[in-house]
Write a structure and sequence with these properties.
The chain is globular. By secondary structure, the protein is mainly α. Helices cover about 85% and strands about 0% of the residues. The chain has 20 helices and no strands.
Length: about 450
């Protein structure tokens, strides 16, 4: 066999698209989960109480507790290159997710709940006990998410992205089945139906990810050549801690942003419309977010950098064009009025706010390109630095908006988000250059 036949083939746009589209489909499907949950709970007894308990308390706490494990997908994609690395990273995942699950249980089942929820969050009195019950049902949430994201990273690393999309379909099918049972029964509290549906979907997807990963572990990970230098706990921590800080900081800014909007003009309408605009923009952004793991998994391939850069440009143009069509045509009115159920007045405000969010899909695509490059290099500190820049800019602009007091919180928050993410992107670009240069430096040797 010739030397050239054993070398990996250069990456093509078709191969990138083949890896990307199942992940993009998975993100799109996940973005549809929250509207489905809200629609069912809204049709059960006492919808206002249970929607507030689920969205305002249960998911806020569950997401903050689980935030340190959200980056396990990127970590597993980047580091699960051989069997020894996989075993050490799996041990790290089990310890971290187990500890966070104990924290969740402590909040849900002990007097710590009253301290955190009643004392700090101060929701309406009628929301407190339904939220307590929902948080108890959600106890397996963190471990289930960690387990499936870890195994999904292995699948992506070894070229099985389509399996991730199939897992999402199974998750949503399980969630929809529980929602349908709860809706047909008609007597169960909305918080029980919603949280049970979420847990059913999470557990189903985690079990699927475990089963689907077994042949990959047996025939590909075990046979992969050992990575040098070997991956030990210190290297895992140096790689992962900045990523965990990034996801935690992102989730902390969400309630702070809502608090700031509440202190600006037209607060109630702004809070209602802001969530709807964010939901629509996120569905388009998800197409760009899905590129992150593709970059991490394929940047080692010969001539990968220019192909990935080209794909990023195409993706950013397409996603921006998609959102622009929504802005320039009656589609935005159909979405905001017919699907989201906003009044014509609120739909008009949402349409105006959508102009401020227009750059976000393109920014998400380039953010995945730069951030994936940084994760691939294993020098993840730059991602945390970029997140701190985002938080600083966002906080400053929200403070200015509150002090000025002349512009509705909806427009201040959307404008601040676009400006802050742009500043974050600039720092990610700067930090990614050294990693790209190192990749380019290896290319000639690979081709030779």
């Amino acid at each position: 066999m010739s030397a050239s036949s054993t070398q990996p083939q250069p990456l093509s746009l078709g191969q990138v698209a083949q890896r990307w589209w199942p992940l993009a489909a998975s993100w799109l499907l996940m973005s549809a989960e929250l509207p489905a949950l809200s629609a069912i709970v809204a049709r059960l007894p006492d919808p206002e109480i249970h929607l507030a308990a689920y969205g305002g308390v249960v998911m806020s706490l569950a997401l903050i507790i689980e935030s340190p494990i959200l980056m396990l997908l990127a970590a597993s994609t980047a580091l699960s290159r051989d069997w020894a690395s996989f075993v050490r990273l799996r041990r790290f995942m089990l310890v971290l997710s187990g500890a966070l699950t104990l924290v969740h249980a402590a909040v849900a089942f002990t007097p710590l709940y009253d301290l955190v929820v009643v004392g700090l969050m101060q929701p309406p009195t009628e929301v407190v006990e339904p939220a307590r019950l929902g948080l108890m049902i959600m106890t397996p949430f963190t471990f289930g998410v960690a387990y499936r994201r870890f195994h999904q990273g292995v699948l992506i690393r070894f070229g099985h992205s389509r399996a991730v999309g199939l897992g999402t379909v199974l998750r949503l099918s399980s969630t929809a089945s529980v929602l349908a049972i709860g809706y047909l029964a008609g007597t169960l509290p909305g918080i029980v139906v919603a949280t049970s549906a979420v847990i059913a979907g999470i557990v189903a997807e985690a079990v699927y990810a475990h089963v689907r990963a077994q042949p990959v572990l047996r025939y590909e990970v075990r046979l992969a050549p050992p990575v040098k230098p070997a991956l030990f706990v210190r290297a895992i921590l140096a790689f992962y801690v900045p990523l965990a800080m990034t996801s935690t900081l992102y989730l902390i800014i969400r309630p702070l942003g809502s608090a700031a909007i509440s202190r600006m003009p037209d607060a109630l309408n702004s809070l209602a419309v802001y969530a709807v605009v964010q939901g629509l923009v996120f569905m388009v952004q998800a197409l760009g977010i899905a590129l992150n793991e593709v970059v991490v998994a394929t940047l080692d391939t010969p001539r990968a950098a220019p192909v990935l850069r080209c794909f990023t440009l195409i993706l950013s143009a397409c996603t921006t064009g998609l959102l622009l069509v929504m802005v320039l045509t009656p589609l935005s009115s159909v979405w905001f009025e017919q699907i989201a159920g906003l009044s014509p007045e609120l739909a008009s405000r949402a349409h105006t706010g959508l102009w401020l969010a227009l750059p976000l899909p393109a920014i998400s695509a380039f953010q995945s390109w730069f951030q994936g490059t940084i994760v691939h290099s294993r020098r993840t500190r730059g991602i945390t630095e970029a997140t701190m820049i985002y938080l600083a800019c966002m906080s400053a602009m929200l403070i200015v908006g509150m002090a000025w007091g002349q512009v509705a919180g909806l427009y201040v928050a959307l404008g601040a988000s676009t400006f802050s993410v742009t500043a974050q992107l600039g720092w990610l670009w700067r930090r990614s250059q050294s990693a790209l240069q190192a990749t380019a430096g290896r290319a000639p040797a690979t081709q030779t």
